[in-house]
Amino acid sequence: MSMKLRINVLPFMVLLPSLILMAVFVYGFIGWTGYTSATDSNALQQLSGQPARYVGLKNYEDLFTGRLNARFRIDLVNIFFFTVLFILVSQIIGFGLAVLLDQNVKGEGIFRSIFLFPMALSFVVTGTVWQWLFSPNSGLNTLVTYIGLPQWKIRWFISEAQLLEFHWNDLAGILIKILLGIVIFAALLYWSRWRSQTAAVLTGIAILLISLLTFSDLDQLTALEFEENHGFNLALIAVVIAASWQMSGYIMAMYLAGIRGIPDELREAARVDGARELHIYRHIIVPLLRPITLSAVIVQGHISLKIFDLVFTLGGGDNLFIDMPGINMFFVTFRGNDFARGAAIAIIMLIMIAFVIVPYLVISLRGEVE
Amino acid sequence: MKSKSKIILIFILFILGLSSQVVAQDDPSGDVEVFTWWTGGGEAHGLAGMIEAFSKIHPDINIVNATVAGGSGVNFKAVLVSRMLGGDPPDTFQVHAGQELNALWVAAGRMEPLNDLYEENGWFEQYPQGLIDLISDEEGNVYSVPVNIHRSNLMWYVPANLEAWGVTAPASWEEFVTTTCPTLQEAGIIPISLGQTWTQVHLWESVALGELGVEAYNGLWNGTTEWTSPEVVATFDRLGQIMDCANDDMNALSHQDALLMVTEGRAAFNVMGDWAVSLYTVDEGLEPGVGFAWVPSPGTDGVFMMLSDTFGLPKGGPNPEATRVWLSYLGSAEGQDIFNPLKGSLPANTTADINNPELYNAYFQAAYADWTSNTIVGSLAHGLVAPQSFLDGFYAIMAAFQSGRDSLTASSNAAVLALQTGMGR
After folding, report:
1. A48: nearest CA in chain B?
2. Which domain holds residue A277?
3. Residue A365 maps to a domain
């Protein structure tokens, strides 16, 4: 009995210091930030030693509906498009490089180092270098004239062009329609492939969504009293290029390790069965790499949702076409001295990142239990 | 044995007492942390020059030159606010005169009044009253020591280029938009160069001053001018017309890039503060009046839009006695004649040796005449007339205006912002 107790107590005691540190410096401060976001805390009030007043969700309401917080809504749209594109582009490039390096290239180590090297730089350096390269009247645009091409007129990170324009007020409707599309697609998939009952459940959800679209008045969901245009800013492409340039090598390293971990017997067996190289990748390697893809997407997702330094150095801070929530949070908190609103932006960023991380944790925990 | 150790003990105590007495009688000593965002160029040299000269006079006081780089002071302010909140104030820190000082630090009661220092040094007579008003509260307590004066409403050009292109510096923005700009555009010259968002705010304040006049411009900050009035909306429309005359890569350029476009002959004009002088004379080796020239920005002749770097004494600083000695030096004509020629600014102390052409070049001679004769107004972009919370929101308004050119939204948003940040109260 006492032996058992000691076994249980000892690991707990050893872990205790780090548990306490985590509890205070991670979760305690998250809680504190959450509390601050529900007050009207600002620098003047704090420096005068006055207590912050509790205001509930007012800061959040302001962020989503306030006239002066258009910048925050622009940030949300920007971060969405940036995250999707950044993950997509660096996954494709990273995987492509890994496959190429897997073909028994001579001097593989050299190539691997070259592709991995940008990872060693800080985002600040990357941002500065790419700012020079993307500068519209020098950099890449004029570099091409050295090889005889006409000068490019690309606006890069100061482009003001927008695709997929929509009004903020239509956002709810658009999201429901996208969700509807996904549900219907999944229902059809489940029905045609497996004739499973899931299809029926999904069809039910789809009918619910359709009735929501037709019977409820979506215009009543309007958050803003005025029209506000949003869209995919082409300037973000410049940021995606810079970020992918830095991160693709890392994705490549992850995939390369994964590919090397796949036993040769599997490939041999497939070849014996008459599979061509393309089929081997399509049906054996890619499915086996699924856990790696998942980890890579998680890593990239949280980098891109928190991005600050790259965009700050690339765009100078106040370029709204590539603005991100992290930059806005910094400016609101420390340039505007509005701690409460800054905390609210931070909490929203945390929630966005939780959407990426929590499913991953659930999946990996379930795996451990099994 | 025992008595011997007793004697030694008494001897030691005597020595200790003596030495502490010596320290108490002597001048203040120890470290003084001077906290600034002056990390490069003339301003860093100016500060270093002052510290060097100060150390020769007061060898016991060790000036610790602490700077935070980047973000035109934003990063600095972030660190400063955290340190002040955490109860770890620096001995003295850089702050712009006006609302940047008053609306936060003085309003929160974090600064020591420096009236005794002003009386001791005779500064009440040596500093212009208008400047002292900007750094005082209503009871007449003065809270900081100004080291320099900058002028914000200036338009820079190269005289030879203007002659070659057949234009003159416009007297009003109306003239610039209707005649100067089309003439230059036909010749393939960019009429006015512009940089990132803060330089656009900087341009707007000059445009607003030129279009509204002194009284209505001041009214924006004390609440007597409506932000939504047609006249204010018109200032944004005018800014839009000027932006149409500007380079289209403005958001990719720093203020230095934009200034250099003028001397490179790619652009005709640039509106920037007089820190342009040190870029042109020191970095580019140009002579004032020949290689480059200046006029007050259109419509602001006879008005001096100013900003000033000052240093205050925060409450609870570790070494206030020595800091007062440093501040006395900082405010003296002697200290300012070392700092300002290197930084490229006017001395705030009127007893400085402004007429010495070896220290102050032709630009500063002329600027000093304006400083002492013109109407003085404060700059928005540099924290003088509005609190930081307003300025932060105004950057976002300006960035949105620059791409959308919606003057009504810009002015009505500014009106809401002014209300929210408690301006004009």
Report:
1. B108
2. 74-161+234-369
3. yes
